[in-house]
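Teaching note: in complex prediction, the entire set of molecules is handled at once rather than each chain in isolation. The prompt given to students was simply: 'Predict the structure of this complex.' The entities are:
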Amino acid sequence: MNFIIVGCGRVGAELAYRMFKSGHRIVVVDSNKEAFNRLHPDFRGRTLEGEGLAESVLERAGIKEAHGLAAVTNSDTLNAVVAHTARAFYNVPVVVARNYDPSLRMVIEAFGLQTVSSTYWGAQRVEELLTNPSEKMVYSAGNGEVEVYEVVISEAWNGRTLSELLGSLEQCYPVAITRAGRSSLPEATMQLQTGDVLNVSSTFEGIGALSSRLASNSKDKKAEA
Amino acid sequence: MFVLIAGGGRTGARLASLLMNGNYKVRMIENRRALLTHLHQELPTEVIYEGNPIDPNTLEQAGIREAHALAAVASDDSTNLALCFLAKTMFGVPRTIARVNNPTNTWLFNEKFHVDVALNQADVLAHLIEEEMSVGDMMTLFKIRRGRYSVVEEKVAPGAKGIGLQLKNMGFEEHCVIAAIIRDGKMTLPRGDSTFQEGDEIVAVTSPEGAQKLAELLAHPVYPVRENKTVK
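The expected output is the structure of the full assembly:
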């Protein structure tokens, strides 16, 4: 398929090479031809020096035949405007705009564009890893507002039910439970066993509450014993 | 009427003073330090709102919801486009006017970005200069339908060829209609037998061809009137 990438910074160069390796026809556009030095030496797509807003540049990049366009410069307004142009003037089926400055994410969202906020998402992941190293994030939806995590049931929760563990948590839903390599859809009444792997769909706040519940209850158990 | 101006460069600052003289309520958003120092010397403090003009929170705090018009005059075209789009879709501003910095971006300044009026500085200036060169002292009062016809005013120069001629014999045909003759501060509606006198101010509705003819009749005879209007 044909894709146009506007902006050949670190994100643009990485994206271009990945998609090229997956077998797509890629055109990378940047107003500064030095930027193309960031591309992997094996990249065999097209590079086009020019302004991403110029009609002639977009048309030379083949926007009329493009299956998708990514606007990944380090200017949020430029990304929003390029992506909106692709959609509103050329009906490009899929457009994605990168959000660079988290405080300007609303600008891209106001255009109703799909956005990837790598700065925001990256900062949140680092915080998660620093504060809750035991939980493992396996899927991130949107820009990380909701994520699917993997937690391991500790000895403290052996024999207790799933609804006891998750009952009063509002921002945390079970999606799968895996025992001895076999997964099933979780039921509220199911009895947990040590070593069960539980996947939950949760907000950042929700997984924090679940983690502290797993931790505090294990302490309680110890205190009781 | 309340006008919000996004961008405090030369154009924005000039516009703000102009509108304030016309008793408009004005607020300008700017965040570049170097410009702000300068702006504070030129404009009252309450007019200047410090912040990034593209940030929706800044726009809201600057009162965009009450604005009757937004003038997007930043030096970056994508900022001006995004501003017009946000102003209409998020904040319901009735009218948006945007500055085009780079003429190659003109094609984007339309209803798809919710731009009501786009002004391309280079283009406006170039046309004005061209006009000034070709028709001497003639002043364009306003343009009709974006350009081809204009309402112009010109004073009858001493010794001009048209002095004493009757209007019906001047040969304007379809290119030019004389709308008013202002003599000694009094306006008269011209008839076919009206004549021009030195010092009369003439108001006319005209095409470029008519303007050329009008200039030949009203200008000082030694003023070089060019045959070819376009300056290459």
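Point out the following to students. Chain A touches chain B through 22 residues (CB under 8 Å). Chain A has seven helices and eleven strands.
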